Amino acid sequence: MKLLSLTLAALLLLSQLTPGSTQKCWNLHGKCRQKCSRKERIYVYCTNNKLCCVKPKYQPREKLWSS
Predict the structure, then answer these.
(1) Over 80: is that where the pLDDT of 65 sits?
(2) Distance set, CA 57 to CA 3, 39, 41, 61 (Å)
(3) What's the CA gap between 67 and 47, in Å, rounded?
(4) Which of 3, 41, 46, 64 could form a disulfide with 32 if both were Cys (CB 3.0 to 4.6 A apart)?
(5) pTM assigned to the model
(6) Integer Cα distance of 26 and 55 in angstroms
(7) Rounded to 5 degrees, what are φ and ψ at 18?
(8) DSSP SS3 for 50
(9) How many whole angstroms separate alpha carbon 7 and alpha carbon 9?
(10) For residue 46, is it within any domain?
(11) Which residues neighbour 32 within 8 Å (Cβ) at sequence distance 6 or greater?
(12) Residue 48 is part of which domain span?
């Protein structure tokens, strides 16, 4: 029983830890990474020469100028 409770306590502790912190970019909507995931796009570069990966819904849209 002690082994079971110790195992559960260890798993609970490990689930709370984050695997490395990533630097935020683009108004805290993006993350600085070496490679973006499929659902993200590169918008700008971070200060640490990594890519600022931002989901498309947070990227500014181009305004169409009508004349």
Answers:
(1) no
(2) 47, 10, 10, 9
(3) 38
(4) 46
(5) 0.57
(6) 11
(7) -95, 140
(8) coil
(9) 5
(10) yes
(11) 22, 23, 24, 25, 46, 48, 50, 51, 52, 53
(12) 1-58
Hey, what amino acid is at 34?
Answer: Q
Phi, psi of 32 (to 5 degrees): -80, 120
Q: Residue 60: what pLDDT?
A: 78
**Residues 42 and 56: beta-carbon distance below 8 Å:** no
Which pLDDT belongs to residue 63?
Answer: 72
Quick: pLDDT tens for 27-62.
Answer: 889 999 999 999 999 988 998 899 999 998 988 777
CA separation for the pair 61, 27 (Å, rounded): 15
- The reply to whether 13 falls in a domain is yes
Tracing tokens 């947070």 back to the chain, one arrives at 58
Can you tell me the mean pLDDT for 1-22? 70
Q: What is the mean pLDDT of residues 21-29?
A: 85
Is 64 part of a structural domain of the chain?
A: no
